[in-house]
Design goal:
Layout lengths: L3 E2 L8 E2 L2 E2 L5 E2 L17 E5 L11 H7 L4 E4 L2 H11 L5 E3 L5 H13 L3 E4 L12 H10 L4 E4 L4 H9 L6 E6 L4 H11 L5 E6 L4 H12 L3 E6 L7 E6 H11 L6 E5 L11 H12 L4 H12 L3 H15 L1
Parallel strand pairs: 5-8, 5-9, 6-7, 6-8, 10-11
Antiparallel strand pairs: 1-4, 2-3, 11-14, 12-13, 12-14
Helix pairs in contact: 3-4, 6-7, 6-10, 7-8, 9-10, 9-11, 10-11
């Protein structure tokens, strides 16, 4: 029997409405049993990070767990099957994605409740980051079932550390809305966040998204990272305006894309009246008066009310 370690030797304690659960974590690589050459882990839900590109970027603990659980829930069985073939993993695969999540979630919960060890993986990276896994975790927690994580690769963190931008405080914003107006509105809400911003973006929308970022956030330093950990990994650094112009000219790049944007500069000099009017006119040409005012306020550091009043005056003069 493998030697096991628990975070607490006591049973899960309940105090008021607070409830804690734990799973035993094996210290060993696993001894023969369970048919796969590995010791079966205790019942529970195991959140397992998988590679974001290079299939060797997976931890020893993740490999041992995936080889020994009763089943693995994944977004696309074809994608996960390639990883399993590379590492000789033969655990049964169950599709769990946004289109079947409502039907599959109770079935997965029932398997864990029945004593099975079930792993959750995404197509790439850490589950729950821009995928439907959080609802499964929330349901398992709500049922008082054991949940643990096996940390590993993350495209968001990989892009951040390669960007060269401050990483002491960052905000992960995921994917921006696909439609132009909704994307600009979302960016205005993020403009004043005092942290480095990290986005996922699709390659076909990259140039337009960068242009909207430059307009809504100001022409901040930024980085575009793509094909991370793969043969053609590339990180392009520059201002948002420069990056937008580059991808507008060169076209959509290949691969998965992470965009990292510097935080707003807290000591930026207030713009002249002429510069303020110019920024407002440019923003008003692409956004509503409210969104344009918010974007320019965030980019310049000027009070939103003052910027809104100036925008009203400009809009009235244009009529």
């Amino acid at each position: 029997m493998p030697r096991e370690r628990r975070a607490s030797g006591k049973k899960a304690e309940r105090t008021g409405r607070t409830r804690a659960t734990s799973v035993a974590v094996s210290d060993t690589a696993g001894e023969p049993s369970h048919g796969s050459g590995r010791s079966k882990p205790p019942a529970g839900l195991y959140i397992v990070a998988t590679p974001i590109g290079n299939l060797d970027d997976i931890t020893l603990r993740a490999l041992a767990t995936l080889k020994s659980v009763d089943a693995v829930a994944c977004e696309d069985t074809r994608v996960t099957a390639k990883l399993f073939a590379r590492h000789g993993i033969r655990a049964p695969l169950l599709a769990y994605h946004e289109h079947n999540a409502e039907r599959m979630r109770p079935l997965l919960i029932e398997r864990v409740r029945g004593g099975e060890a079930v792993a959750l993986v995404s197509d790439a990276g850490t589950p729950l980051v821009s995928d439907p896994g959080f609802k499964l975790v929330r349901a398992a927690i709500g049922e008082g079932l054991a949940v643990t994580t096996l940390p590993g690769a993350s495209a968001a963190l990989a892009g951040l550390v390669l960007s060269g931008l401050p990483s002491d405080r960052f905000f992960f914003a995921g994917f921006l809305p696909a439609k132009d107006a909704a994307r600009r509105h979302a960016l205005t809400e993020l403009a004043s966040v005092p942290a480095t911003l990290v986005f996922f973006e699709s390659a076909p929308r990259l140039a337009a998204a960068l242009a909207d970022m430059a307009s809504a956030l100001g022409d901040r330093p930024a980085a575009v990272a793509r094909e991370l950990t793969k043969l053609y990994e590339e990180v392009r650094r520059g201002s948002l305006g420069e990056l937008a112009a580059h991808y507008a000219e060169k076209g959509a790049p290949r691969g998965e894309v992470v965009v990292v944007v510097a935080r707003p500069h807290p000591q930026a000099a207030a713009p002249s009246d002429e510069a303020l009017d110019g920024a407002l006119k440019e923003a008003l040409a692409a956004m509503s008066l409210k969104d344009a005012s918010a974007a320019v306020s965030a980019a310049t550091g000027l009070p939103r009310r003052a910027v809104y009043a100036r925008a009203l005056a400009l809009a009235g003069r244009a009529k």
